[in-house]
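Notes from the 1:1 (GR / supervisor)

We went over the backlog. Supervisor wanted to see one worked example end to end before approving the batch request, so GR pasted a single chain during the call. The sequence is below; no edits were made to it. Supervisor asked that the structure be written out right there so they could see what the output format looks like.
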Amino acid sequence: MKLFLKILLVLFIIYLAAVAVSTYLGNQEIKTLIEEGVLTSDYTQLELAMLCEKLDVEVIFFGCLIGGVW
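Structure output shown during the call:
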């Protein structure tokens, strides 16, 4: 039982780390798009969705994921 709880705790920590990393990457992608003038600083989810449809998925994957488009 203790082993099961330890494994569960390790998996939970890995999950939290993955969420933190993907959130950071998504925010950085959106920040870069704002700095490049592709998005305005007060962008809406609809604008981000239209951008995600036009751009290559590899370019803004985490930004679309974190922004709530997918």
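Supervisor's comment: The chain is about 75% helix and 0% strand.
Batch request approved.
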